[in-house]
């Protein structure tokens, strides 16, 4: 039993919220129930659907199942229209005429005002149903409507249907497309899904260890502060059966901790990290039917728990990357020509062909249908697709972030920008912005730099992922180019939590009695990485190859300085925000990675594996968070 409203609040011509029209009061008039199906507990009813239950006619006000209409009316989920007065025979069966003249009468960055010509009916029109991008967002008795809570610089499609007293509904009007105005910050989507400062989050698999961990660390946060987001993977393959329980755990525990839950939907790869598995699953109607049913269940389940709280989705890491890298050239790099079994979303019953938009059997259609499904079944969703550093051609064998080392500084920067644009262009053609997606996401790598492919902690210059400040600045150049190309803010995801040995930061004695952070031994779950020192800033005592490597500053970064064997990196969180980053989600992507908070399988179960360095830096940050530009 869950709502499936779009984010934001819609209003009718009076300016009152739609919810004010919900009523469980009994109606005295008799109405026709001809052709209206009997209520079925296993059917999902969408807003505007009508059913007969115990000789009464009801209309669904939200997307709902299981709850009978009597209970649903008391809870505001159904509206009682009246008693069936025709015994199932006779009555009005003529639908109103098609609505004509649909037009936009006003647009802001977050609102669209609509008007249309009145429809006609043999008895009389009683109201109009308003649909945005195929989903009903309101009803009104007049011929005007204002849709609110929209994203700036986003395109929306509207249609109107007329309805009479017998419940007959007209065919849809012609579609009118409206693009909202840019906001005051250059057209970024509405920031209601994230705070006004650069937000931080963590991988979060709730269990007894994380409960104990937060009980210990929460008192050391600045007053009234907590991590903004907790994210959890929804892996594919046999693990799809776990999605429901994972939705319950993450939503419940995130709400307890004051965090917003984010689900990383990692299903199409089948939990194999294989491009062939991605391709085969895209073509498999049976797999995608199971996938869409699980997505819908996650949305309903999390929405019931979170109530009015937001729920986020990072969608299908590696999927677009593998398709772009391995298959796109065979189809002219055009996602609208790449086949996919999108019809499974209808075959599974998750969407209905006569009510929802018809998405084509292509990669673009599949991407759009996933966005649409998540919004339909999650009452206050925010979402974005994940892109990959390695997807587009033209990168050196060491990876696009190393382009300045291979091609020279200026030529390398141009390569990085070209590569990011190629990534963004393919994603745009694939429909990632459909339905007003709030962000785009990019990761670093699932492993800490000191354990990733080719790693050598004693000679970090030979390591592909143990980055110095120059490479991190290259990474932010890639991020900035994504943001500028797609017009969407960026969420960094799966950023490792290890740190560089030699830190001079002091540890709270509540975490380390010595007041210092012990070195990481570069063993399982205790590896070094440079993300936290770069983002939060650090002063490091180094020598030999490590001193030479982490001292490099081809970018002439004013926040990098060297004094003898001491290297200081200032915090680069403001640089990240200026590059378009609105949130940074950090944590282990692979089981052997360093853990900033406990996860099942580590010991002791209630402790991180980095000696509390990451959580200390998080808590220091929240004392004075970076405001977004």
Tally of helical runs: 15
List unreliable stretches of 5+ residues: 1-28, 184-191
Computed structural class: alpha/beta
Which bin fits the share of residues in helices?
25-40%
Q: What is the count of β-strands?
A: 23
- Strand share of the residues? 15-25%
Characterize the structure shown:
With 629 residues, the protein is an alpha/beta fold. Helix content is 26%, strand content 19%. Strands 13-14-15-16-17-18-19-23 form an 8-stranded parallel barrel, surrounded by 6 helices. Strands 1-10-7-6 form a 4-stranded antiparallel β-sheet, with no helix packed on it. Helix 3 packs parallel to helix 5, helix 5 runs parallel beside helix 8 and helix 10 runs parallel beside helix 11.
For the structure shown, list the relevant keywords.
eight-stranded parallel β-barrel; alpha/beta; elongated; 629 residues; disordered N terminus; four-stranded antiparallel beta sheet; 23 strands; 15 helices
Structure in a nutshell:
This protein is 26% helix and 19% strand. By secondary structure, the protein is an alpha/beta fold. The chain has 15 helices and 23 strands.
List the helices and strands and how they pair.
Elements: E1 11-12, E2 30-31, E3 50-53, E4 56-60, H1 69-74, E5 78-84, E6 103-107, E7 112-115, E8 125-132, E9 135-140, E10 144-147, E11 155-164, E12 176-179, E13 199-203, H2 208-217, E14 229-235, H3 243-257, E15 260-266, H4 275-283, H5 285-306, E16 311-315, H6 319-326, H7 344-347, H8 363-377, E17 381-387, H9 403-407, H10 409-429, E18 439-443, H11 469-486, E19 490-495, H12 531-536, E20 538-541, H13 544-551, E21 560-563, E22 566-569, H14 573-578, E23 581-586, H15 613-621
């Amino acid at each position: 039993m869950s709502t499936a409203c779009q984010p934001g609040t819609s209003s009718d011509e009076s300016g009152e919220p739609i919810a004010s029209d919900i009523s469980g009061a009994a109606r005295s008039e008799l109405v026709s129930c001809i052709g209206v199906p009997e209520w079925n507990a296993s059917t999902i009813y969408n807003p505007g659907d009508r059913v007969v239950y115990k000789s009464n006619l009801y209309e669904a006000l939200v997307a709902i199942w299981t709850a009978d209409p009597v209970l649903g009316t008391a809870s505001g989920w159904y509206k009682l229209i009246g008693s069936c007065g025709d015994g199932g025979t006779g009555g009005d069966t003529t639908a109103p005429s098609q609505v004509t003249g649909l037009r936009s009468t006003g647009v802001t960055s977050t609102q669209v005002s609509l008007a249309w010509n009145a429809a006609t009916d043999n008895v009389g029109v009683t109201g109009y149903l308003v649909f945005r991008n195929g989903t009903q967002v309101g009803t009104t008795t007049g011929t005007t409507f204002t849709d609110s809570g929209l994203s700036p610089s986003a395109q929306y499609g509207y249609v109107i249907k007329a309805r009479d007293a017998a419940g007959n509904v007209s065919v849809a009007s012609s579609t009118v497309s409206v693009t909202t105005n840019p906001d005051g910050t250059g057209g970024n989507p509405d920031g209601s899904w994230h705070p006004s400062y650069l937000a931080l989050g963590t991988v979060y698999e709730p269990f007894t260890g994380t409960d104990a961990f937060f009980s210990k660390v929460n008192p050391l946060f600045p007053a009234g502060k907590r991590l903004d987001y907790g994210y959890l993977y929804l892996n594919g393959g046999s693990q799809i059966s776990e999605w429901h329980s994972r939705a319950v755990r993450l939503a419940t525990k995130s709400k307890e901790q004051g965090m917003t839950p984010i689900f990383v939907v990692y299903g199409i790869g089948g939990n194999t990290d294989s491009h062939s598995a991605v391709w085969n699953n895209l073509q498999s109607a049976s797999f995608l039917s199971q996938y869409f049913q699980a997505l819908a269940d996650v949305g309903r389940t999390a929405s019931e728990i979170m109530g009015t709280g937001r729920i986020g989705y990072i969608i299908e890491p590696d999927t677009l990357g593998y398709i772009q890298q391995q298959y796109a050239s065979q189809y002219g790099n055009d996602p609208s020509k790449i086949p996919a079994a999108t019809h499974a979303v209808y075959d599974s019953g998750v969407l209905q062909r006569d009510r929802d938009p018809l998405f084509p059997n292509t990669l673009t259609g599949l991407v759009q249908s996933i966005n649409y499904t998540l919004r339909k079944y999650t009452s206050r969703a925010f979402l974005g697709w994940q892109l990959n550093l390695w997807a587009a051609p033209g990168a050196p064998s060491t990876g696009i972030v190393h382009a300045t080392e291979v091609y020279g500084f200026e030529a390398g920067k141009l390569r990085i920008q070209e590569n990011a644009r190629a990534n963004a262009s393919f994603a745009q053609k694939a429909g990632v912005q459909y339905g007003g997606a709030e962000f785009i996401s990019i990761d670093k790598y699932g492993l800490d730099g000191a354990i990733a492919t080719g790693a050598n902690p004693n000679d970090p210059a030979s390591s592909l992922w143990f980055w110095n400040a120059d490479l991190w600045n290259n990474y932010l150049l890639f991020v900035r180019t994504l943001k500028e190309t797609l017009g969407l803010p960026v969420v960094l995801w799966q950023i490792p939590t290890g740190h560089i040995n030699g830190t001079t930061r002091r540890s709270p004695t509540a975490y380390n009695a010595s007041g210092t952070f012990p070195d990481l031994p570069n063993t399982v779950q205790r590896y070094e990485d440079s993300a936290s020192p770069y983002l939060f800033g650090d002063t490091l005592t180094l020598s030999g190859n490590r001193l030479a490597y982490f001292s490099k500053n081809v970018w002439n970064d004013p926040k990098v300085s060297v004094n003898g064997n001491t290297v200081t990196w200032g915090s680069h969180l403001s640089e990240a925000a200026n590059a378009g980053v609105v949130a940074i989600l950090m944590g282990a992507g692979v089981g052997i990675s360093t853990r900033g908070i406990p996860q099942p399988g580590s010991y002791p179960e209630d402790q991180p594996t980095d000696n509390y360095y990451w959580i200390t830096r998080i808590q220091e940050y929240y004392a004075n968070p970076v405001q977004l530009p």
